[in-house]
Every structure is written in C-alpha cells, then in structure tokens.
Design goal:
This protein is globular. The C terminus is likely disordered. About 80% of the residues lie in helices and about 0% in strands. It has one domain: Growth Hormone, Chain: A (Up-down Bundle). By secondary structure, it is mainly alpha-helical.
Amino acid sequence: MKKIVTLYKNAYGGLSQPAWMLAIIQLINRSGAMVLPFLSVYITSDLGLDVQHAGIILSCFGAGSMIGSYTGGILTDKIGAFKVQIISLVGGGAMIILLMFLKTFILLSAGLFFAAILTDMLRPANTSSVSMYSKPENFTRSFSLNRMALNLGFALGPAFGGFLAAYSYNLLFIIDGCTCIIAGIVFYFYFRNRKQNPQPITKDKEMITSNHKSPWHDSYFLGFAVLCGFFAIAFLQIFSGLPLYYRSVFQMHESMIGLLIGFNGFIVFLFEMILVYSIEKKFRPTTLIVFGTFLLAVSFMLINIFPTIAMLFIAMAILSFAEMFAMPFMVSFAVHRGSDKTRGNYVGIYTLAWSMAFIISPYLSTLIISRWNYNILWWIVSASTLITAILFFLIDKRERKRITLNADKIYLN
C-alpha cells in the first residue's frame, strides 16, 4: 500500500502551480461537458430525426471543430494563448446555451458548427499554455495532468448529465454553457497579470524536432497526423456510434448511458498520471502509441464477440487504457516536433486531424448503421484501427532509418 501511495505522490509531484491551475480550469470546463455525449440520442429521441440526420448534424460539429482547431493554432501564434482561451471559453459557452433554442435540422446544424468553432479554438491555445508553464522535466506529465482533469470532468459530466437528460435536455445546454463561461472567468483572473515565460523544452532523444519552417512541409509529421486522425475516427465512436448502440441494442436509459461513458473518464482519471509516470522513460513514445492503437482495436472486437452488458464495461475499460497509452504521447510528440515559432501550427494540425475525424466518424458510423448493422460497424472500426497501428509502426521505422542514413552521411563527410 505504501508503494502505491508513493507512486501517486511521485506522479503528481514537482508540477508547476500554473500547470495545476490550467488543469483546474479544464476540470471546471469539462465537468459541464454534458451535451456532446448525448447529442446523438437527443437528436434521434427528443427531436425525432433519423440516424443519418444525426450523423450529418454531428459532422457539422466536426467541421466547426476542424476550423476552430486550425484557426486556434494560428491565432495562438499571432495574438497569444491567453486571448484565444478567453474568447473560446466565454464565446463558446454563450453559443452552447443558444443551442437549446435551435430545434430544426438546419438551425441545429448551423448552431453546432459555430459552437464548435468557438469551443475548439481552446485546444491548441490550451496545449500551448501547458507547454509554456510546464517544467521541462515534467513536460509529458503536465499534459497528462491536464488530461486527467479533463477526464475527471468527463466522468462527472456525462454521469450527472444522464440524470438531467431524463428530466430536461435544456438543462444540459444551460449547465454546459455556464461552466464554460465560469472557466473563462477563473482563467482570466488567474492568468491576466501572469507573464508567459516559454519553458525550454528538453530535447528528448525519442522526440525529434523538425527543422521545417512549416508543418505542411514535414511529410513525416503529416503522415503521423493522418494516422492520429484514423485513431480518432475509431475513438470518437464514444460520442456517436456507442451511445446509439447502447440505446438501440441494449435499450439503455440516458442515466445508464451517462454512467457507462463516464466510466471511461473515471478510469483515465485514476490511472493515467501514474501510468505515464511509470512508462514514459522506459519505452519510446511511438511504441506506446502503437500499443494503445492496438488496444483500441481490441475493445471494439470484444463488443462484437461478446455482446453483453458486462462486456460493454470491460470494452470501455480497454478503450480507456488505449487512450492512456496513446493520446498523451501523441500530443507530446506534436509539441516536441515544432520549434518555438511553429509549435502552435504543429499543435493546430494535430488538433485539425482530430476535428476532421469528428466530421468523418459520426457520418460514417450512422451511414453503416442505417445500411447494415452495428456488428458490421464494429468489425470495420476494429479492422481499420488495427491497420492504423501497423502503419504507425511502419512510418516510424522508415523515419528513423532516414535519420540514421543522414547522420551516417554527415559523419562520412
């Protein structure tokens, strides 16, 4: 028991005060993240639209997310992460509240599109802030702390939101929007007079910084970002295909759906920090990403092979460990890959890959569901994710071979 306590203490020790404050702001923001996990159910059950319309509406959210993520990266480099985060939190919160008045297909699609632009400007700006306020030796753990707060909020939000949804979906929009605005106010008063002092990022031998002036000229990183997008297409079923599956096949009530989705956030909250602390120096980041992607494929395979309530929780637990092995190291890789002048753009492209996945994932899943069935969907998702794991391994192997050859040429000259 003492060893476990020491492990947790070491995992959380040494992190800067601003890094903790950024995590607290994420916790406030994400504790109100009640709308997104229930959107597909809200659209089909409360608004009475069909599954394909739900997929299109969620894809509009993804399109806005894509624009917001990339714009947020550019604006972070131009006007600074502080201003971008204030605009995103306060403006995004107001837009989320407005969504409860948009009841038609066209209006809700447009509203979600603009809400996503505002809310997803936060991601590259927040990532940039974490990198600025982190101690060099605690870089990946600072990101994991931020994600831990996000996941604690994501555990609380859907679990509480499921009970609210059973009473009124309007409450979800109001509370989600208000928590965004509150997070923005807390952020403003804590960081308004605090200088952003970029911390020198230590050159991890496994994290190779690019010399390219733009990430668009970095073919290896672009390939990496595309594969992150494929990973995201599978992972984001947690917001589209899985809630519909729970409702349609297992006849789950919103409260039970919220508990099951919140179970993901709870597991990540409990274990990510100590997991990252234990493995980040022992394995190459790309090796961990490959393993995490493989676990994600396994989680969807199990749903098809053993379609029971118990297996849904087991599969969600495996999906949670897939997230912990892959995602902290994906974002850390993107930040390390960019220089001080291009970091915002690198992070912007990484988040852009996720946003593009949010366009593709709900539309593709609802299309497959309407034309075939859930079993076909899960086999396609698991097979494509397994291929993604293999491709992660292959492009990394090729890049390291290229670097070795270039180093040999320099040595010989």
